[in-house]
Amino acid sequence: MLIKDVLCPFCGCLCDDLAVEVDNNKVVDVQHACKIGSSKIMGHDRIKAPMMRDDKKGEFREVSYDEAINEAAKILANSKRPLLYGWASGVCEMMKKGVLLNEEVGGIIDNTASVCHGPSALGVHEKGMPTGTLGQFANRADVVVFWGCNPVQAHPRHMSRYSVFAKGFFATKARRGRKVIAIDVRKTDTAELADEYIQVNPGMDYIVMSALRAIIAEHADVVPDNVGGVPKEKLVEIAETLKNAKFGVIYFGMGLTQSRGKYKNIDNAVSLTTELNAFTKYSIIPMRGHYNVTGFGNVCAWETGFINAVDMSRGYPYYNPGETCSNDLLMREEIDAAFIIAGDAGAHFPAQSIARMGKVPVVQIDPFHNPTTEMANIVIPTKVSGVELEGTAYRMDGVSLRMRKLVDVDFPSDEEVLDKIIAKVCEIKGASA
Questions:
Q1: DSSP state for residue 317 in the 8-state scheme
Q2: C-beta of residue 131 within 8 angstroms of C-beta of residue 277
Q3: For residue 268, what pLDDT band results from cuts at 50, 70 and 90?
Q4: Which of 275, 265, 32 is nearest to 149 (CA)?
Q5: Which of 5, 149, 376, 433 has CB atoms 3.0–4.6 Å from 287's, for a disulfide?
Q6: DSSP of 202-247, one letter per residue?
Q7: Does pTM top 0.85 for this prediction?
């Protein structure tokens, strides 16, 4: 059976044009997906059963779901400062359960944005965000800027579906009608495909943006001959290109959010976009990584008022990035238990945080074996969202889409496991579930 219009559960593009061949309740072929998306849908390194171990250096032993869930609940219920991290590779329905679990245990709930686009949110808090949808950009944009991002590697179908090669209603010439500018500290594969590559010295993005803003505001006289490694004449040329667009869009990535300046880079980029709108139409959008990291921001904001790093230890939501983000807490050695779900802390956290996780009990809920598994005491496998489970996810531009179930499996969903853990935690704490 060929199932069409399937969403890809890999990156923030949430490509919705996949065709998946299912034979005898098994995925046998994936069409139109990138290699990474296809690999995830086809399945790899699947964890086959719940596992536990007392010694992190010891071998896992297979246990029942009930035993693993009960022990996970005991760890969370007895913890004074639990961290509930991940969430970005799951559907919104399970995220709501996660917020509820965090309330019950008085912990800190944080997602993968904490180590990627969290500063983007702070920049948006400061200035707002003139943005739009990927469909709007594909149909209209004739000037495309990639600043500190590399979609060729991180979002393999972004350029073909939305930004560079796609033919749009107004952008009828597709690639031939677009000017593509890549701004980065190194010449990435994306920069190789661009019409202009602007190499910025590491940590100098903020002052390069400031120079562009000064030139656009007709104050080029205050700009020195070289800014952040970029000659003034090149900045003047780029500023003219930006101003003369019919419709421009700036895609930005972790080259801005995780380099010197962090959220102030985003603040400045939004200001640049806003000022370009005095001349023509411009939008700006972050290149979100995990397929539903945007969804967690929405769900967490609905439930707590904040998008991530929410501390419930006071009995009410408290949010203060720099104090309540995962790595802030781990590096201060405050965390005494970690609950990792639909995310891979082991692959993305710095060594000091990993060292702390190595000293506290770690519960992992994930369909796949990954570096976090190596630090876990309890591992509970669940369904793969978008393949074995339907649910809601948000694309990087904030458009909500419904993911489909393609095959039936015996694994429980994240939501079912969370429901049982919440019930057990309430039982241990003497509350009603």
A1: -
A2: no
A3: very high
A4: 265
A5: 149
A6: TT-HHHHHHHHHHHHTT-GGGS-SEETTEEHHHHHHHHHHHHT-SE
A7: yes
